[in-house]
Amino acid sequence: MNALIEKLRAGTDLPPNDIRYAITMLLADKVADETKAEFLTALQEKGESAEEIYGFVEDLMQRAVDPEIETANLPGPMIDVCGTGGDGLDFFNVSTTIMFILAAGGAVVVKHGNRSVTSRSGSADVLESLGIRIQLEPHQLREVLQRHGVGFVFARKYHPAFRAIAQMREKLARENKRSVFSLLGPLLNPARPPHQLIGVYAPQLTGTFAEVLRRLGRKRAWIVHGLAEGTNGMDDVSICGATTVAELEEDKISSAILDTQWLGLERCPLEELRGGTPDENAATIVGILSGEIKGAKREMTIANAAAGFVVAGIVSEMRHGIEFAREQIDSGRALEKLQALQNFSG
Question: Which option is the CATH number for 75-343: 3.40.50.970, 3.30.9.10, 3.40.1030.10, 3.30.300.30?
């Protein structure tokens, strides 16, 4: 490990064999946490290349539990919606809210997520507060996807190898230190969804993630980083400013700037999007889906759901996606998807 650390400090990208060795050492009990943290810090300070991130993903996916989901057996296009976290803004759970809207509109949402590391409420935390089971076995996950078009893949259950590094990750998070594991969550969905909407905490990561997803064989993806005045940005489509988008479609990568104000969504102050505890965010999700909550949080949800509909191929452009997302809420169909998961017993 010390030799790899020196390579990284010299600014050298690690080849696949070195990445595989590093992962073996990171997951080994015999290696001190201090050495592991030193390696991860050196990698982060150099800047993780697309090849290095891809190496981590491929190795860790081989260690994951495969839910064995056949896309041909699903009632619609399979998509994951997930962010890296790490933007420090502590919003309500945007991607968790839109999973029900996307499912109502005909997508099959396989939401990969975990408990909170960098915010007050992770997707697993808020779903538990909603009374939704998060510890689904593979056969239960397949059943709920076929019946209701929406399901949750709990990262801790499907990536047992992560238990070996859980304490170290939490220690780095408490020290406000990022590592490659801050990036990997949206890339490690063991269902390998062909469509993905991913939010990242830094604009330069949009192109890097697009390249990783291209190597992973994804059919279509948007990687987004939203802007907001006075911040370093957000891992969502923004309604507080413009959004940087890297798009992967059929092995080709392009980039664009999206401004939801051009599409009729009003700018909003950042403070109106703040979240809270899992219970508070659960109440926000119910309020948005039931139509009781209007304003910025509803508009933020609609903007991100619209992007999901475009990525899934259900609509052709954001303007249509916005109208379609509103329809899923106003008709009550999105709330029905939430209730279906709450009632699912497997």
Answer: 3.40.1030.10
